[in-house]
Amino acid sequence: MKTSLWRSWLLAALVAPALACSLPALAATLSVSQYAQVNADLPFAIALKKGFFKEEGVDIDRIISGQGGGTALRNMLASDLPYGVVATSAALAGIRAGVDLKIVNTVSDNIGEIALVTLPDSPIRSIKDLAGKKIAITAPKSTTEWMTRMVLDKNGLSGQAEIVPAGGFAPALTALSLHAVDAAPLNDPGLTLKADTYRVLFAYSDQIPRVTWLVGITTAQFAAKEPEKLRGILRAYRRAVDFLYANRAEATSIYAEVWELSPDEASRLLPKYFDMPGEWTHGEFNPEGLATMSAAEMVIGNTDKPVDWKPIIDQSLLPEDLRRPL
Questions:
Q1: Residue 155 to residues 135, 149, 202, 207, 211, Cα–Cα distance (Å)
Q2: Which structural domain range is residue 147 located in?
Q3: Cα gap 230→157, rounded to integer Å
């Protein structure tokens, strides 16, 4: 059923650009999963605001956000610029459904935006205290599910806590406030801006240091037809990452504008991410991060064997100094 649904919207997505062939060329739209929601996407906002895309020969005038669950992938396939940023799990799901995709760069290797929290007066003080408790996740087979199961297994608690799908971050926190669950995932900005409302049990990145969870993808056809355009996108992205670290005040200002935060909120939120290894990569692939993502796919039952990354990843579009053995 899932495979047939993927193929149905894939057909619709591929027809749209064909219908537009006779129209005048316009500036392109870039699809980025959860844009202006997750901090890992900040380099794309910088590349757009600073004009790096146009300077690298790619006329991108707008970035649209996919809400996860394959939305960004569908947006990318329907675009006249079939490059987009998606969760690695969504890319793998598309490939399993028969979409001829290539992963061409890593966007983030650190999941530091999410923590597992309890209420301030909760008796749960350590991971070991989760035995026999109820833990909310956002949805079945979500990032929060595989991360939670991995952490429980790492700490000898596999099968000893009940995993409860809540339907999203907000419903999970509601369930926590009603004492329907004992712990729930919380992401930024709430993780930082509402620090007094919840007590952090652990940051997932402390338990799972590196995981390739956000990647750039394209179709194999577009990679063969327009490699220089894709190289331009990846160069602009790399420049934006360099700019972010070298110009933190201006990067924070752009972050506040695009994420619709006050300058004070942005200044409280962003600094910790500068010190997270892999939060923003230059595009290179991290073997440890890929191995973790492969294990995650097995944890939630998407595959019964490790992911073979070699036929899926195309490093030829990356600068040579960023290419890594897989």
A1: 15, 10, 12, 9, 18
A2: 114-207
A3: 44
